[in-house]
Amino acid sequence: MTLSLYIARRFLGSVGKVFLAFFAILMLIDMIEELRRFSDAGIGLTGAAHMALLSVPETMYRILPLIIVMGAIANFLGLARSSELVVVRAAGRSGLRFLVTPLLVSVALGLVAVALFNPLVAATSKAYDDARSRLSQGGRSVLSVADTGLWLRQGSGEGQTVIQAARSNLDGTQLFGVTFLGFDQKGQPTRRIEAEAAKLVAGAWQLTGTKTWDLTAANPEQTAVRAEGPVALASDLTPERIRDSFGTPSAIAFWDLPNYIGDLERAGFSAQAYRLWYQMELALPMLMAAMVLVAAGFTMRHVRFGGTGKMVLYALLAGFGFFFLRNFAQALGDAGQIPILLAAWSPPLAAVMLSLGLLLHLEDG
Questions:
Q1: For a tag site, which of 30, 190, 228, 268 has the least CB within 10 Å?
Q2: Which residue, 10, 14, 60, 66, is CA-closest to 316?
Q3: How far is CA 241 from the centre of its chain?
Q4: CB-CB neighbours of 28 under 10 Å
Q5: pLDDT by residue (tens digit) across 112-152?
Q6: Are the CB atoms for 299 and 362 separated by under 8 Å?
Q7: CA 178 from chain center: how many Å?
Q8: Do the bridges between strand 174-184 and strand 189-201 make them parallel or antiparallel, or are there none, so unpaired?
């Protein structure tokens, strides 16, 4: 038990040092980028640091598998240089049994990352988007999805229009059971339009089956107008702008993903990317353990055998290779080229199996 605690402490120390090193480097790079990007907005050093603190967690979360493999390499090299691996083997503990503790720690880190770090990243990503919108004097996301349906917002020189629809097509350009609520520049409601369907064309919504209320009138219902033919309503929205408003699945906290996926599908959108991201988050602990096995397969050997630099390079290349394979499988899964479960689980499973094969060959071969 004492030996296991010592190994766990050494492993956590190595991973923590790599994590802090990457965090400091990314903070510096991001601060410089924020100063350059928002120089016209008069952002200072403090403001740039605040923006970087909101932006860096998402990047750190994405490269966690690489941090784990680098931390594991540093840990195993340190134990090999101090001959502690030789002592452990001489005490009767095999290399595979020695790896149980680092594997358990990496799985625990993966669970903590998914359960705690993931919601933190989602919150900081949303805060960063809001802060960036304020600095760039741009509008916030024009689209959101809830259990009440699809919500859109569009602007014009006369004011804002809020759009609520029961459902839509896959790209949000055709809405059904839709309500348009117009506001003037002071935020007062001016008009309400209910339509059976709305189709986005160049510069306007084409509405069918509409009923319009003038909310500035004393009795809006008495002055309501029903139109049987198509009605055009000016709009600054485009299909690209609606699509871009979805953001990324990483902006949704892990615990909120199942409900968000259900809301998307009820609104008529495809939730393929979000379902894939959810499965990839579930597979993250296995990927973390796989990265430890990759590092161990090349660096858990005594330094007197030589070729340490070459082995470290091989371990890094293997770790980056599996990381690239995971991203490549994610792209294929997003496009629907391969099943979601295959895209999410096959890269970590392949890394575990290949690394275990290498370790068994080295230990018992």
A1: 228
A2: 66
A3: 20
A4: 12
A5: 999 999 999 989 988 887 787 777 654 444 666 766 677 88
A6: no
A7: 30
A8: antiparallel
